[in-house]
Amino acid sequence: MNNRKYTSSRGLWIARPALILVFMVFMAAGCAGLPEIRLEGPVAEFRVKTACRKVFANTPRQVVHSMTARMPNDEIYQGISVTRVSPESGRIKCVIMSIEGLVLFSGQANGEIRVERAIGPFDSEKFAERLFADIRQVFLPPRGLMVAAGQNPDNNPVCRYLLDDGGFLDVVQASPNQVQIIEYNPGRKKTQTVSVTRAPASGEAGLRPADTIVIERHGVLGYRLDLERIEQNPDSANLP
Amino acid sequence: MAGIAFMRRIFYRFGFFAALLCAVPFFAGWADTMEEIGDQAAGIRTVKARFVQEKHLEMLDNPLISKGELYFRAPDSLRWEYTDPVKSILLMNRDRISQYAMGEDGMQARQGRDLEAMRVFLEQVGQWIRGGFDKNTAFAAELKKGQRVVLTPVDKNISAVIEKIELRLTDTPGVIASAFIYEDETSYTRIVFHDTKINPKIEDSVFEHAG
Question: What mean pLDDT is predicted for residues B162-168?
Answer without folding.
Answer: 86
